[in-house]
Amino acid sequence: MLAFIGGTGLTRLEGFEILNEKLVDTPYGQPSAAVLEVGHSEHPQRSAFFLARHGHPHGIAPHAVNYRANIWALKEMGATAVIGVNAVGSVDPSLHPTDLVLPDQLIDYTWGRASTFSTDSAVEHIDFSWPYTASLIEQIVSAAKSSGIQVRQGGVYAATQGPRLETAAEIRRLANDGCTLVGMTGMPEAALAREAGLEYASLCLVVNPAAGVKAEGAPDREITMADIEQAVLDGMSNVRQLIATLVGEQQQR
Ligand SMILES: CSC[C@H]1O[C@H](OP(=O)(O)O)[C@H](O)[C@@H]1O
Ligand code: HPA
């Protein structure tokens, strides 16, 4: 069954009915919130799992998220594939707030996070050449087509430590590294999903041009939470619609 991890601006799936709710205890402690099983009136035979990455209400900073507990809890509930929803800044200046992007690569700049299920006595070196599951990306692309929603396929997600936003020089470095998107939660979530044997993809909603990135001729502006909140408000309805379609297009239970 599909699972969605909601991020900034997606702590609940409005329009969905909560069919079941479970606070899962894991060997790594408590996940960010209860795992919800949700259904949509348009697709009564289908359901999916939903977990709010930053808690409900939003209260857990990106560096403090218990990523291991979140992935463990979804796996234990029976999820086989996870779509992480991520608000991101655009490093690529051709991207704009409210654009949806499906990255196919990532670079991890985070540090000090509990980032593996491996232990000293049981180490697993997973292949992570392609961190996102191609077939799951195709499923999202197909759902976007049938919903009439535009998504850009491909991109490199830079996972930074946060919670502060980056300096303009840091973003220039990310651009030189080949990154096109920047966020603070994409890792270790993606790697843990791979270790747990779960398919994983990231659905990114651009909510701001990253520090120092601006459209040609536009004035240099600070990044404000008001602008980000507006982009979340404007863009999240497409994300919800896409999720409803994905739930409907899943294999029958
Ligand atoms: C200024 S918003 C930053 C916040 O939003 C993103 O979270 P998520 O990926 O969970 O949507 C970003 O990573 C930061 O945590
Ligand atoms: O500009 C950003 N940087 C890092 N994370 C983010 N999440 C949303 N916007 C940003």
From TrEMBL:
Top-level lineage group: Bacteria
UniProt cross-references to SUPFAM superfamilies, sorted A to Z: Purine and uridine phosphorylases (SSF53167)
Alphabetized UniProt keyword annotations: Glycosyltransferase, Purine salvage, Transferase
EC nos: 2.4.2.44
UniProt site (Important for substrate specificity): 166, 225
InterPro entries attached to this UniProt entry: MTAP (IPR010044), Nucleoside_phosphorylase_d (IPR000845), Nucleoside_phosphorylase_sf (IPR035994), Purine_phosphorylase-2_CS (IPR018099)
Pathway entry: Purine metabolism; purine nucleoside salvage
Catalysis: reaction(s): S-methyl-5'-thioinosine + phosphate = 5-(methylsulfanyl)-alpha-D-ribose 1-phosphate + hypoxanthine
Binding sites annotated in the UniProt record for phosphate: 8, 53-54, 185
Enzyme class: transferase
Binding site for substrate: 184, 208-210
Domain named Nucleoside phosphorylase: residues: 3-232
The keyword Transferase appears for this protein: yes
Subunit architecture: Homotrimer.
Record function comment: Catalyzes the reversible phosphorylation of S-methyl-5'-thioinosine (MTI) to hypoxanthine and 5-methylthioribose-1-phosphate. Involved in the breakdown of S-methyl-5'-thioadenosine (MTA), a major by-product of polyamine biosynthesis. Catabolism of (MTA) occurs via deamination to MTI and phosphorolysis to hypoxanthine.
Stated family: Belongs to the PNP/MTAP phosphorylase family. MTAP subfamily.
Misc remark: Although this enzyme belongs to the family of MTA phosphorylases based on sequence homology, it has been shown that conserved amino acid substitutions in the substrate binding pocket convert the substrate specificity of this enzyme from 6-aminopurines to 6-oxopurines.
Protein name: Probable S-methyl-5'-thioinosine phosphorylase
Lineage: Bacteria, Pseudomonadati, Pseudomonadota, Gammaproteobacteria, Oceanospirillales
